[in-house]
Amino acid sequence: MPVVTKETADLVVRSFADYHIFGLDLETTGLNPYTGAKLFSLIISTADEDYYFNFDGTPDHLGNLAPYNTVLPLRLLPYIITALKGGTVFIHNAKFDQKFLLVEEVLALNSCRVICTYALGRLVNNLLISYSLDALGKLIGYEKDDSVEKYITKHKLYTKVDVGKKSPRKDKHYNLVPFDIISNYGMRDGRVCYELGIYILTRLEEMSEEQIKLGLLPLMPVVEREIELTPVLLDMEHTGIKINRAYTREAYEYQKDQYQEIEQKFYALTGLDFEDGRKTLTAAFKKMGLEHGYTEKGNPSFKDELLPDNTLGNLIRDWRHSYKLATTYYKNFLDIADDNDVIHCNFKQGGTSTGRFSCSEPNLQNVPKHGEDSNKYPVRSCFIPREDYFFLMVDYDQMEYRLLLDLAGEEEIINKIKGGLDVHTATAEEMDVDRFAAKTLNFMLLYGGGAQKLANALGTNLQDAKAKKNKYFRTLTKVKSIVNALINTVDRRGFVTNRFGRRLQKPVEGSYKIPNHFIQGGCGDIVKIAMVEVAKLLRPYKSRMLLQIHDELLIELHKDEKHLVPKIVKAMQGAYKEISLPLTAGTDYSNTNWYDKEPYNEK
Q: Which of 242, 295, 552, 601 lies 20 to 30 angstroms, CA to CA, from 495?
């Protein structure tokens, strides 16, 4: 496994012309290229060899330098990447590595077929606990290599960063690990990327053939769509979304004062320093002579849903609310934003078992919606459009329910919706119940809620909830049939495939979850198709996609490109045409921030 030197670099790079498949990995000084982290080495693997390109001439934690002839100038990076042009490049968590290259203004991977082994690993098995390189490497016989992690921990090669949470974040310094250790570690990861990529593509082709033989839709179109989606997500994340730093800091200070004031009240009442832990809270309730919650086994519990409505219970609930706003949102936004006040989150392409995205660093899919946030400083108000742009929000209308009704073929309700009613009103008319009950029943059906959860949601007793649930299925007999068919199929075969060919295995929680996975996965695939189409539409323009929030796209539209709005809506509504109940999408906009939105009017 050779380390590339100044003498061999040109020969190695020119040898890449003999290959068409590569594994690629980077070693970096941190996790966020937008707040100062840099790449310090590049690993390229071919069928025959693994190459380590070192760009770091600084000493390790022992004061030792890498051999002089192994320290390459960073200006070689574009030359190396360009040599991969036209090839297939396997990268684990491809967006992460490419963002570091983009920060260095290396764009040449655009001419390659980049395949993210993390994203496609989810298609091979949608129920694995982890999709890390180490976890997926076990599929091809590679055991976890934690030598570098152990070395970093042993020698404390990390910096603790206060992020406003109970435990500080540890920023690990891989560049301080001795050269021999980190170079061997890096080349091993390059080799795993290469072999894992080949294995995953081969396995997905086999699975696709299996599905065809069973009379099901092939899997490979889903694979190709995921490959096509990776650069779309990369562009979104690289562009990022801007925050109003002054507003966000003011909001943080306000909520910080709120939870600190609650801590003082807690001390005044109990004589104890506040800590949101079972030991302190048990002692506090005992001292006050108040009842607290218990688990089914009779142990003390202080989960929100079990907190009593008394002095201490309300204080704890209020503290958690203010603390979450202050730390999960405002302080986190301030810490993670770059020097231009832009946040670059991470959309995890293989983030959920259903096929939908998840989001992290930070999770902008979980920011409270307009109707859910009555705080003095609404969280979405932190986010603002750049100068000469405004926010356009395009959201599918009740997408999951439309897909379910279409799949089941519930013609009476479908016709009512086509006639102008929304899904829940149409369901309510059909069942002869109020809209709230119909909406709750629809929601519970999709998310696998039992009778007791339904009773709680409806604010009624268990008997009434069961009666409404039975009436729902007596009325929507075709929905009941498709739900039963999905459950029976996954019990018999171990998996189902959705309308796009995505394979969904029997959920760990039980077969009753498969209708939810089926519908959510189908919606996820439609949104992904829409994102690719909208990205193509916007490519020649200044306007750009910023975020995907479940069934909604947030677009930063340039003020001179309003003519694109109907085209964007058309692209989203046309993402899936094989449906008798057409998909529709509503549009809102804001010139000020993500929270203060209003319906978009073309005039």
A: 552
Q: Is 355 contained in some domain?
A: no
Residue 528 φ then ψ, to 5°: -65, -40
**Is the same domain home to 385 and 406?**
no
- The residues, ordered by sequence, that sit 6+ positions from 322 with a Cβ below 8 Å of its Cβ are 255, 256, 258, 259, 262
Q: What range defines the domain where residue 195 resides?
A: 9-215
Could you tell me the end-to-end alpha-carbon distance of the chain, in angstroms, rounded to an integer? 64
Q: Are residues 33 and 89 in the same domain?
A: yes
CATH number of the structural domain spanning residue 561:
3.30.70.370
Q: What is the pLDDT of residues 105-118, one digit of tens each?
A: 887 788 899 999 99
The reported pLDDT for the residue numbered 448 is 64
Spatial CA neighbour of 185 closest among 138, 133, 139, 135 = 133
Same-domain pairing of 516 and 527:
no
Tell me the CATH number at 334: 1.20.1060.10
| Residue 365 located in a structural domain | no
CA 524, chain centre distance (Å)? 12
Q: Is the pLDDT of residue 250 over 80?
A: yes
**Is residue 600 classed as helix, strand or coil in its secondary structure?**
coil
Contact 87, 113 (CB under 8 A): yes
Residue 599's Cβ-count burial label (10 Å; 0-12, 13-18, 19+) is: exposed
Do 158 and 118 fall into the same domain? yes
**Residue 179 confidence (pLDDT) above 80:** yes
Residue-wise pLDDT tens digits, 207-229: 999 999 999 999 999 999 999 99
311 with 440, same domain?
A: no
Q: Which one, of 234, 175, 193, lies nearest residue 38 by Cα?
A: 175
Q: Which whole number is the average pLDDT over 585-595?
A: 96
Cα 422 from chain centroid (whole Å)? 29
Count the neighbouring beta carbons within 10 Å of the beta carbon of residue 105.
8
CA distance 188 to 50: 8
Q: Is residue 579 pLDDT above 90, yes or no? A: no
- Other beta carbons within 10 Å of 372: 11
Q: Tell me: do 542 and 571 sit in the same domain.
A: yes
The count of structural domains within the chain is: 4
- Phi, psi (deg, nearest 5) at residue 102: -65, -40
Sequence-ordered list of residues with C-beta below 8 angstroms from that of 508, at least 6 positions apart, any chain = 127
